[in-house]
Specification:
The protein has helices at residues 22-30, 84-95, 116-122, 135-149, 159-176, 188-193, 195-206, 223-234, 237-256, and strands at residues 11-15, 35-37, 104-108, 127-132, 183-187. The chain is an alpha/beta fold. It has a single domain (8-217), classed as P-loop containing nucleotide triphosphate hydrolases (Rossmann fold, 3-Layer(aba) Sandwich), CATH 3.40.50. A five-stranded parallel beta sheet has the order 2-3-1-4-5, with helices on both faces. Helix 4 crosses helix 5, helix 4 crosses helix 8 and helix 8 (223-234) packs across helix 9 (237-256). It starts with 10 loop residues before the first strand and ends in an 18-residue tail after the last helix.
């Protein structure tokens, strides 16, 4: 077993539900000269959930759009895996893919949304950055993505179920939040609309000497889903029913998170629920 020789305070964990923007956020942070992201891993999007031997992959709990509904996906300091041996083994597996000369070492995986307390127990002093994106956009994107990419799981998760899954995942995160230190929540919508302002608190959290670069961020990635959602208002009877059912059953929760069911780009200020 490789002993952990990395100061855990050097570690930065990025998480967020699948299709929420973890990749562009992590890419931006890892573009800073003080930060090393995982690179040349040979696995999808350089996500360590596909590398490590100890923590289960999200797909074992149903994959994107389902994993948060399985209680086993929520790991805390009470997990039997929250041991020094686990920490040493994980860093040993990750270290070969980092530039260890950089001050900060970044790891990005969507399941980190549900594992903040666990990661904090393994790596005291590590930073956690979570990205949150409109539940309707995440649902529309995940629905399309699952149908195109998934072969081993049920492809027919509905839009309604995907919004419900978003709520379950983020409610779990909210329950964990009071237990977390060195944590920052980034709105995807703010990230692409005003990346300099959105990333300033991240730079402060990480103690960076200069701003996080923003040249890799694109503002238009949600446009297709906004058009799709708008078309569902006057589309086929089935499309209209799907939209109405989401607004009826999840509208209050969506607004509680500061989002709008008509304007998918609108976000109320200071709107992470207490």
């Amino acid at each position: 077993m490789t002993e952990m020789t990395v100061d855990p305070a050097r570690l930065v964990f990025v998480g967020g539900l699948h299709r929420s923007g973890t990749t562009p956020l992590a890419t931006a942070i890892a573009g800073h000269p003080e930060v090393s992201g995982l690179h040349d891993t040979g696995v999808k999007e350089d996500e360590v959930q596909h590398l490590q031997s100890r923590d289960p992959k999200a797909k074992l709990y149903g994959g994107a759009g389902r994993c948060a509904l399985d209680p086993r996906s929520h790991l805390t300091e009470a997990s039997s895996l929250a041991t020094e041996q686990s920490a040493q083994q994980l860093v040993g597996e990750w270290s070969r893919y980092w530039d260890l000369d950089r001050r900060l070492l970044l790891e990005k995986s969507p399941p980190n949304l549900l594992m903040g307390r666990f990661l904090q127990a393994l790596f005291p002093g590590a930073a956690l950055v979570i990205v949150v994106r409109h539940p309707v956009v995440v649902a529309l994107s995940t629905h399309k993505w699952r149908r195109l990419a998934s072969r081993s799981v049920n492809k027919h998760t509905t839009h309604h179920q995907l919004v419900g899954h978003w709520m379950a995942a983020h409610d779990t995160f909210l329950q964990d939040l009071p237990h977390l230190t060195r944590t920052n929540v980034v709105r995807y919508e703010a990230l692409v609309a005003n990346p300099v302002a959105a990333l300033e608190p991240v730079a402060d959290l990480l103690g960076l000497a200069s701003p996080v670069p923003t040249d890799t961020l694109l503002a238009s990635r949600s446009d297709r889903y906004a058009r799709q959602w708008e078309a569902m208002k006057t589309g086929s009877p089935f499309q209209r029913w799907v939209r109405r059912s989401i607004e009826r059953d999840h509208g209050d929760q969506i607004r509680r998170w500061g989002y709008d069911t008509d304007d998918l780009s609108a976000v109320a200020p200071d709107s992470v629920p207490a």
